Amino acid sequence: MNIFNFSQKPVDVPPVKTAYRCIQTALPVPQSLEVFERLNRFESRSMHGQMPIVWDRAKDFQVFDKWGNCWIDFTSTIFVSNAGHGNNHIIQSLKDLLDKDLLHTYTYASDVRADFLQKLIEKTPVEIEKAYLVSAGTEATEAALKLIRLYAQDKNKKRPGVIAFDGSYHGRTMGAAQISANQAQREWMGYEDPNIFHLPFPYPWDEEGNPTNEDGNIRFEKDVENLRSQGVDLKEDIGGIIFESYIGWAAAFFPTKYVQAWAACAKENDFLISFDEIQSGFARTGPLFAYQHYDIKPDIICCGKGISSSLPLAAVLGRADILDLPDIGSMSSTHSANPLSCAAGLANLQEIERLSLVEESTNKGKILHGRLNEMRQRHPREISNILGAGMLASLIFRNSRSVSSACLLASQICEKAMRKGILLVHTGRESIKIGPPLTIPEDALVEGLDVLDEILQESIQ
Ligand SMILES: Cc1ncc(COP(=O)(O)O)c(C=O)c1O
Fold first, then answer.
1. How many A from CA of 244 to the centre of ligand 1?
2. I need a surface site. Which of 71, 104, 336, 429 has the fewest CB within 10 A?
3. Which of 91, 84, 113 has its CA nearest to residue 306?
4. Mean pLDDT value across residues 265-274
């Protein structure tokens, strides 16, 4: 295998049969190969590179194929199914709407959209007054960027400057890719937005960014100096700063004091603070939103993924004076108010409440992080960090020879886990991420962690 290419050649693997996992065929399943062949033939390859499983059904914390195999899911389909796959209440809400024959309304009003928006705003902290709904996270990022720039215009700033961070990811559309840090992923555009300023992310392994010491402030001062040296005047040239609540690939949070220093600076210089909660929202890290770990009040929040635990839905939330900056009709989308997505979003919020998923995430997160830290202690040379919070965790691998060896080890561990009935988040980098549905029972969580422990022992000599 290489880092992005899991083998599609069937391999005989030892059978697994427990209450929660079943592996009883070669993997990939020989009969499933024709599905991959058709996808390889008819779909752009940019969508490929995932582990070779054909999903037939997913319920709560388990994923099933057609051939009797069943996995414990530690991915929530990339942090979407926070309230569990195929959540019964969400499915029932969708069925109720389907029975009424309401599949699409464009931007015409519907009860379900009003109900969802009201519930969403009621659930969020008081400073959040309005929302704008879209279908994908990247669209939420685009909208946040637009709001920041309209704000800069409204305040007669000289430039529509936006501060963002290296290492971050905000989506694949043009504005989102300009803010995201991966320069290689921006090359196709043929230009760099001169008013987007990237700062280095203060990783915990970067001494100055160490979240456990006082240096958040020192790092902040250094970054302000860095911007000034590029001719940036924070008051005149900056409309907003966009944080990913934690850097996705590593689940690394910013030092708290660093974020707080930027929040104070934003107030002083009248620019907006926007948090990308697309991956981190809806109780993934414990609180409803991950920015709450920093004890600050953002002006804009972007949400997606776990907002519905299912159908395509994303949102931009914020103060009314910001959300109302665009004129009637100038920030809208054909599918942004889709009634089915709104029904899923509403039912999802009801489930987060009914199942106490904020508390569940915090409590089960203690088990998750406790076990991972024990694993790290057994492999201190190979695992440099366990990061994340609540039901989000990452293992960061290191290899004294090369970063690519660490990336390969992470990919091999994901493949081995798949063969033993566990799905882990494959990042393509020197990390593995874990984010089970928040509804997973404790014994299933522990079973999955036991398997990971076993794989680490096998894979690290
Ligand atoms: C932090 C973050 N922002 C934005 C996005 C883009 O969301 P989408 O894939 O729904 O466009 C993602 C997706 O992985 C994400 O993790």
1. 10
2. 104
3. 84
4. 98
Could you tell me if 254 and 202 are in contact, meaning their C-beta atoms sit under 8 angstroms apart? yes
C-alpha radius of gyration, the chain, whole number: 22
Say if ligand 1 is within 6 A of residue 169 CB.
Answer: yes
**Residue 337: what pLDDT?**
82
Residue 119: CB partners within 8 Å, gap ≥ 6? 346, 349, 350
For the stretch 276-308, what's the b/e string if a residue is b when 16 or more beta carbons lie within 10 angstroms of its beta carbon?
Answer: bbbbbbbbbbbbbbbbbbbebebbbbbbbbbbb
What is residue 210's predicted lDDT score, i.e. its pLDDT?
A: 57
Check pLDDT > 60 for residue 212: no
The pair of three-digit structure tokens given for residue 247, joined into one six-digit string: 């850097």
Single pTM value for the model: 0.96
Quick check: 244 and 277 in contact, CB under 8 A?
A: no
Measured distance CA(256)–CA(212) in Å, rounded: 9
Residue 263: CB atoms within 10 Å: 20
User: pLDDT tens digits, residue range 339-361?
Assistant: 999 999 999 999 999 999 999 99
User: Residue type for 352, please?
Assistant: I
Ligand 1 in reach of 281 Cβ (< 6 A): no
Q: Which fold has domain 88-354?
A: Aspartate Aminotransferase; domain 2 (3.40.640)
Q: How far is the CA of 132 from the centre of ligand 1 (A)?
A: 17
Q: With a 6 A CB cut-off, is 60 part of the ligand 1 pocket?
A: no
- Residue 61: both structure tokens together: 């914390």
Q: How many residues can be counted in the chain?
A: 461
- Ligand 1 touching residue 263 (CB < 6 A): no
At residue 214 the predicted structure's pLDDT band, cuts being 50, 70 and 90, is low
Domain ranges of the chain: 1-73+401-433, 88-354
Q: Taking residues 357-366, what's their average pLDDT?
A: 98
Question: Is residue 387 classed as helix, strand or coil in its secondary structure?
Answer: strand
pLDDT at residue number 204: 82
